[in-house]
Amino acid sequence: xxxxxxxxxxxxxxxxxxxxxxxxxxxxxxxxxxxxxxxxxxxxxxxxxxxxxxxxxxxxxxxxxxxxxxxxxxxxxxxxxxxxxxxxxxxxxxxxxxxxxxxxxxxxxxxxxxxxxxxxxxxxxxxxxxxxxxxxxxxxxxxxxxxxxxxxxxxxxxxxxxxxxxxxxxxxxxxxxxxxxxxxxxxxxxxxxxxxxxxxxxxxxxxxxxxxxxxxxxxxxxxxxxxxxxxxxxxxxxxxxxxxxxxxxxxxxxxxxxxxxxxxxxxxxxxxxxxxxxxxxxxxxxxxxxxxxx
Length: 294
Description:
Elements: E1 4-7, E2 10-13, E3 19-25, H1 32-45, E4 49-54, H2 57-60, H3 63-66, E5 69-72, E6 75-78, H4 79-85, H5 90-103, E7 106-111, H6 114-120, E8 128-130, H7 138-146, E9 151-154, H8 160-170, E10 175-180, H9 195-202, E11 207-211, H10 217-224, E12 229-233, H11 251-268, H12 277-286
Parallel strand pairs: 3-4, 3-12, 4-7, 7-8, 8-9, 9-10, 10-11, 11-12
Antiparallel strand pairs: 1-2, 5-6
């Protein structure tokens, strides 16, 4: 089974170091200064990529929600106005592209509609992601597939039948599939990490984990269960305004997570039993009999 995908020269999949994604999403709250600080955090922590979201609010915001009022950092405004406040356009993404190149870290986005897929064609990002909420959107799945870019798909809020149907549209070539539960933050009893080996057995593509829980241990456990790429939301401060902040990791936590993941990767070994040189000395002192030889 082929379980690797080439992400602009960085191979992701079995036998490769975990591809670790720092999900900035909309935690930048419309600020490029905050965005640059978050990119710096991801780079300093050893992440491979940062990720954002891209959507056309005219197509992605339901009509019945557009005029609903809400408190925001920009005042008491409609939900539609808010969506535009946190939506980056070409100028902002050009700055993000330049900054990530300078920092030598990859970046890409979750596209919520075909217009956003077309928009992203102007940038040479390593892949395009379909978010869990859009897994059942055939038009979007086909647009991402037809882009020719490597694809990433999250599976939150989806049944196995829906996942099967989505992958039938997208195919498994150049696909990275992420187990996820779409609750922010997600209670640990709903993480269902044992789905990772289930997906590994079912689909011929790299399987990863997109986590929305509080804490780090469960994300590290996903690596032990076979996840070969990881995604976690990051923030400068979990007390910042925004719906995703509470399920995000602060800078020190992100550094610990990457360090723990790399340590677990080394500790997993190759699964071939052997006697290590460091054990030989211990055996000579502690093993008094060897009567199993034939």
